Every structure is written in C-alpha cells, then in structure tokens.
Amino acid sequence: MMFQTRLDSRFIQRLMLIGGGLLLVFACTFAFSKIVSAHGYINDPASRAIQCKNGLNTNCGPIIYEPQSLEGPKGFPAAGPPDGKIASAGLAGFAQLDQQSATRWNKVNMTSGTNNFTWNFTARHATTSYRYFITKPDWNPNAPLTRAQFDLTPFCTINGNGQQPPATLTHSCNVPQRDGYHVILGVWDIADTQNAWYVVIDAQFGPGDSIAPTAPTNLEVSNVGTTTATLTWGASTDNIAVTGYEVYNGVNVIATVPASQTSANLTNLLAGTTYNLAVKAFDASGNRSPSSNSVQFTTTELPVDVTPPTNPTGLHVMGTPTSTSVTLMWNASTDASGIAGYRIYNGNTVIATITGTATEKVVTGLSPNSQYTFTVRAYDPSNNESGDSNAVTVSTPDGPSATPWEPNTAYAVNALVSYNGKVYKCTQAHTSLPGWEPSNVPALWQLQP
Description:
flat; six-stranded mixed beta sheet; 29 strands
C-alpha cells in the first residue's frame, strides 16, 4: 500500500512537471505570436490590405497573410514612407499595394459627413494619436500616391493619450465633401516606438458610375519606324469625365495616356512586325468605351548589321565595395544602329546585364572576402557584341558577422542572421519559431544589401 502511494505521488509530480513545461511553451508561443502578428488595420470601411486578405483585391502579394503589418517610420507628412510607397508603408515586401490606378482596387461606398472607422488590433501599442487624411478633390487616381495627392491637414485626429487601445476601436469622423473615387489614409502613431501604421482605404463617394465613355474616333497612324510609331485619334466624351486612354494590341494594353492627350508616341516596338491597334477611353469608375477603329501597320525591317559596337573604355569602381556589392562605371560605346545595352562579365561569365544606354551598374550578390575581375561589353539591337573593356579587379571585404538563422532562438534588435545565402537584420526582439524564417516575416527581419 505504501509502495502504491509513493508511486502515485511520483507519477503526479511528473505530470505536474510535464504540464508546467507545456504551459511554458504555450506562453512563449503566445507571446511570440503577439509580436509577429503585428499589429493593426482598419476593418470597416474595409482597407485596401484587408480587401486583399478577403479576396476582393487580387494579385496583392504577401499582404494577404499580414494585413496588420503595414508599419513604417512615424512623422507623416514631414517624415514617414517615401512618396509613391505610402500604401505599403515603405516596405518592399508589400510593394504591390503601391500600384495605383482608377481601376486597380476594389472600392467601398462612402458618403461625405459622419463616418465610423473601426480598427482591429492584434498587438496593442501605447498610442499618441490616430490621424485621417484624404486625397485632394483634383487628385489623379492614375498617378502614384504622393504627399502632393493628399490634403496634408488631417480631417480627423483622435488623441491616444499614450494608452493602449482595446482589441477593437471605433472613431467617428467628419469626412470632407468628395465625389467619385478617393483614397483615405489612416495613420496610427505609436507612443513608445519610432514607428506608425499606414492604412489606405479606397472609397467611392456618391452613386457608382456605370456609363462608359464614347469610343475614340478617327484613329490614325504615322511616323512608322523600325521600333516606333505615332497614333492620333478624336476625343471621347463621358457623362462625368474621361480619365484617360489605353492603346490595345489585341487584348494587351501597350500604352496609357491621360485624357488631355489624344495621341501616343509608341516606342519599343519590334522591327519588321505587323501591328493591329485600337484605342479605348476609360473613366474614373473604370468604365471602358467600345474600341475605336483599328489601324494596321508594319514596322520597318532592321538592316542586316554585323558590325559590333566599339569597346567600352574607362571601366572603374565607384566608391568602396561592400561585402556583397560593387558599383562599376565606364565610358559609353558607339554603334551605327545604337547601343542596346551592356553585359558585365566576371571572367567569362555574365553576371549582370543593362538594357539601354546607362553606363553605371551596382553589381550585387557577390560573396564576402572574394576577388572578382570585371569587364564590360556593349551590344547593339542585332546583338552584335563588342570586345572587352579594360579589366578591373575588386576584392570584397569580410561581411557582417551573421549567424545562420535557427528556430527557437532569442534574437535581439539589430542581430544579423544568414538565411538562404542572404543576410537579414532583426527589427523587433523575438524568439523564433518554425515558419517565421526571415524571408517570410518582413515585420521582423530587414534584408541587408
């Protein structure tokens, strides 16, 4: 009986130890999940990011997994994400959000006047303020989102008083008078870090417009060359306004111009190729007109060219090489048919190609503490390649001290790790778990050049 009692006691102690360990693992996992699930988004009216997650916006990239992670430097508009990258908070991993046109994103219907904005928070930070901005009445929906596109005086500011918000928070704001498509920018300013969250909402004010513009008329082609041609047409009309015109080659759009322009100078056409083109007008609601009349033409054949360009000269290194990159510059080559581009060689291997006439290139993907011998060759539209430029030899320095990334490891801010041949810097202290590799979690890791 005594033996049985001791056995039961030991068994219970083991169960308690195992249970405590499991609780510790769960607590660590939960704490980590709060870090990496960072941190908040506007759910109603549905923001661009949450509409990506919900499938109403498509081809959005990895934001569909992290609509709450649009974190960038605070201080907008004086600081914060650069122009053209406001919707992504300046995060390269979410760059698809910066695409901007009158038809790119699904819109939520709104009216001017009192509106509620509801935030969902997955990690609650002490807050300085919540601010709301809106595009100007005459903004261009087909141009990148820049500060010049917004009224930089917030139409609504809510003081956060340095407090953490609840899991869900609703603000009542008076939205200025607007008509048609506009973008609202919500900024969540954090009190205890240097960052803020940037959330855009694509809003349609007033009744939706379903009336398409009239078809462009009298499409004509002129100035047909080897790779160029000029199109002209008569203007379309619309019940509200024409926003722009698209040039179609079959079903593919090959050029877009604003409504004020009823011509298009086409470039980068293929020599000796027949084209059958038409033009459609579109308005701010994405309605497209019927096609104009079509025009058919054939670009001029390239003459047979067997003469290579002259050799590039003066190849040299600009600045100081890093452990993984070097900037090269050279003097331009010449060719009777023009220069199509340059190829950079390491020995006999092409490691970079430049399309066009640029004579400078940052060569990346190099290995630390390694020696390279570079030359440059030019090529023309017929792919005739020049001889080598002069050679330059470059030795890359030792790279930063980076340890291989591993799961279940505590990482401090600014810690460097290597993963799949690349180096990342930790931006938030955390303990890693499987599935949160640096390339998968841009909220935690910043790719290093």
